[in-house]
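Incident review: delayed structure delivery

Summary: a single-chain prediction request sat in the queue longer than the usual turnaround. Root cause was a stuck worker, restarted by the on-call engineer. No data loss occurred. The affected request and its eventual output are reproduced below so the record is complete for anyone auditing the incident later.

Affected input:
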Amino acid sequence: MTVTAYINSSSPVTTLINVFTVAPERQAELLELLARATEETMKHQPGFICANFHASLDGERVINYAQWESEEHYRRMLENPEARVHMDAAGKIADIVEPRLHRVESSHRK
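Output delivered after worker restart:
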């Protein structure tokens, strides 16, 4: 199933951009874990909208671009023990994990 992330500056969603630095030989492993965690746990959390995973061409980064209905929904997910298991596992694969919450300031389309 394909889900499209609509980036819209007038939408009041909270955007998580999580940058994982990973050894190139572990990039696929991390991507598989994140996809499985999303299907099994994250997408069932209240306020979850979508998650998109991007793999850098050099193999050293994985970017998670996720949307939540609010910062509060995201923070509640962080307290969920099921979600913590997946996040802790990702932290063991990645060398550096840099999650940041954002708001969309502008969006441009052709």
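Verification: The chain is about 30% helix and 30% strand.
Action items: add queue-age alerting; document worker restart procedure.
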